[in-house]
Amino acid sequence: MSSGSLGAALPVLPTPQLATALLHTDDPDHKTHANHSVAPSIQTSTTFRSAPFDSQIATDIRNGAPLNWQDPGIEIYSRYNQDTRGRTEKVLSKLMGAEAITFGSGVAAGHACMQHYAPSVIAIRKGYMGIHAAIAVYRRGRTDLKIIDLDDEYPTLSKTEAEKDGVRRGGLLVWVETPLNPTGEVRDLKRYVQKAHAAGGYIGVDATLAPPPLQDPFKQGADFVMHSATKYMGGHSDLLVGVVAVKSKVEWESLFWYRVATGAVPGNLESYLLLRSLRTITLRVQRQSETAHKLAQWLYSLTVDAAHPSEDVEDKELVGGKVVEWVWHGSLQPRNDKDPSARPTEGADFDPRDQMPGGFSACFSIRFASAGQAAKVPHSTEYFTPATSLGGVESLLEHRILSQASEDPRLVRISVGLEDFADLQADLRRAFQANLSA
């Protein structure tokens, strides 16, 4: 990382920690870019002057030699590669500990996974509605596709297409979202990984609600990991990008050619904004997780089943489920109390702390005592914005039925931003008190 002539060679530095690596993984070579900018420039061009006809790279291209599309040494057309996007994917690969490729949105990334693995059976339960929509589109061309529950018996299928790019197609794809949207609950990845691999299937994880450093699904054995980078990776509610990370470069190249063929690339500005945001993800996500943990514990203390009800004098008229009836959050697992709505949860023997060593999701849900409270509280707050989405630096409250008609009208999803815990608590407390009779 040194620049200029410093005399004797410096000793090699130890491997950088994640926060440091995210700032320097895509640094230009100081020997050839001695005066490079500290913050990367955004490159907006879609096309580029071709290499000189007598250059080695031009000769290789004419002779059909394969390019390394992660670092081809030349830019041709932005549907193939582009410097800003390339730098972003380099940092994402470091963050996720695998080969990362970006798409135009999280849903586009999810649909790419369906096409890439081409399953005839998908095991899934609940999760983000956009992924279910992507499966429905994929199903149009696969009338034989079966959708089963995560806890159903998995069929062991013979492959219908030989492995030629690192993937066996035509079999089983197990799709696990953890933490789960909208509740923030954690699913037992090791259990599903063992079950999927025993049946010869692939297992993918939608880890949008808890990016590194909170969890790393590859450590539990996931075959691929997907994120809507629009959320915590972007973190500022100003971009739309999806990312898929796979274990091998061969699989990355297969996804790359899918992206080229479908044109599902993110825009240059979105790539630039994502690269900017990745520099601070460890600070943002850990702070959001810590605040959400405190908030979830306090909200739980207001419910009927709270093991330790709030003793704060300001909460005396709120405790006992008068406003908040139920709270879902990974920090409340494992739990012995039983949700009367019978939402699917992991077993009482599953403790998610080993799976999520960096903390729990900053997105979770509560169920109000009445639909009126759920509708009015988001519009009675000062620091929470009544809006959909999650993962931004600002806190949000979403009356979930406005986005998903099948949802309980009493459910509100909370996305915790970077505001101070005491301010968010006071804001909710005031809104609760104002809507006790709603």
TrEMBL record:
Record keywords: Pyridoxal phosphate
Keyword GTP-binding in record: no
Superkingdom of the source species: Eukaryota
Listed InterPro entries: Cys/Met-Metab_PyrdxlP-dep_enz, Cys_met_metab_PP, PyrdxlP-dep_Trfase, PyrdxlP-dep_Trfase_major, PyrdxlP-dep_Trfase_small
GO MF term set: carbon-sulfur lyase activity; pyridoxal phosphate binding
One of the record's GO cellular component terms: cytoplasm
Region called Disordered, residue ranges: 332-352
Cofactor: pyridoxal 5'-phosphate
GO biological process, one term: transsulfuration
UniProt-listed Pfam families: Cys_Met_Meta_PP
Modified-residue entries (N6-(pyridoxal phosphate)lysine), positions: K231
Cytoplasm is among the record's keywords: no
Family that this chain belongs to: Belongs to the trans-sulfuration enzymes family.
PANTHER family cross-referenced by the UniProt entry: CYSTATHIONINE GAMMA-SYNTHASE (AFU_ORTHOLOGUE AFUA_7G01590) (PTHR11808:SF35), TRANS-SULFURATION ENZYME FAMILY MEMBER (PTHR11808)
Protein name (Swiss-Prot/TrEMBL): Cystathionine gamma-synthase
Source organism (scientific name): Tilletiaria anomala (strain ATCC 24038 / CBS 436.72 / UBC 951)
